Structures are given as C-alpha cells and as structure tokens.
Amino acid sequence: MNFLITGAAGFLGSALANRLAREGHQVRGLDNLSTGDPQSLAQDVHFTRGDVNDRPKLWTLLQEVDCIYHLAARVSVQESVLYPSDYNIANVGGTVSLMEAMRDVGVRRVVLVSSGAIYGDQQEQPLREDMIPNPRSPYAVSKLAAEYYVRTIGSLWGIETVSLRVFNAYGPGQHLPPSHRRWCPIFSSRPCAAAR
Q: Which one of 10, 31, 134, 184 is CB 3.0 to 4.6 Å from 188, fit for a cystine?
C-alpha cells in the first residue's frame, strides 16, 4: 500500500513510517521539523519538509496514496495554555486542510492520532472509550475538535476514518527535553543510564 504520514519525523511518526517501510509499503513522510528529526527516518521513507496547512504540497504528496496516518500536531499541554490560537491553527486547521486536500485528490482513508488528554479529569477509573470528554487544556480541546472534524467530514465526504486516543507514548529513540529526565524505578533517586 501507499501511505502518507504527517508528523513523520516525530517520535511516533518515525516509528510508524519505519515499520511500514520495513514491511514493504511505499511511505511518504511530511513534517515541518519544528520538533521532528528526519535522521530518525529510514532511507526508504520518502521525506518532504512541509506543513499540513500547505494545500498545494498536500495535493502533490497525496497522489496515489491509499491511506494517511495524521500525526502532525503541536503537543505541549503547557505551551497550549500560553498560545491556544497556535494550537488551533496547527491541530484543528491543519486537520481540516488535510481533509480538504484528501477530498480534492480522492484519498478515502485516514487514521487520526488523537490524545487521551481529551478525557481530562474523570471520577471513574479505568477510563473507557464511551466516557464523555472533559478536556482541560487548549491542546486537549484542539485534539477533540480534530476528532470531530475528521469524523464529520469523513461521513459527509465518504472518507473512512479512525481516531486513536494515545496515552503517554514512550520508548526507544524518544528525545526528551532536560526538564523531562527519565528516572529509574520508584525506589531510586538517580537518573536511568538510558537517559544519560
């Protein structure tokens, strides 16, 4: 299959792109490199630097694509509190731009990577998919709005959609700022060797 992955140079995007390429799929990656690292992508991932709000670039990249994984987003909860309009432009506007470009080109499948942050504070644990969202930050609101846009537009335009609500993904190859140092097990006060 032919895939386009937005946010392809990020932590989750690069892992997905590399996995699909290893499995023999044709993979195109798009990332504005605000936080991503193109060096994390395998050589057989066809990478383009760009933004999901750039419709002409999307039209080109979407040619003959079977499915899109949409991971491009701004993701800092704290930053979203300071700059909510930036999060709306990137996460909501970028999603709508992508859906419009899909319609224009005729791509009929998209997987949106959303966030568990849309649930916010819930009295009942563990969380369930059918719980009413309670977003507590502009970031969470933007991800929930993106979900609604994808589902609604998909239904109106005959596009198959799936939204995945990912919680705190972590693993090998993750680049964390110094303020997010990894720590060893709960009884240790020293940083893990892997984090050094």
A: 184
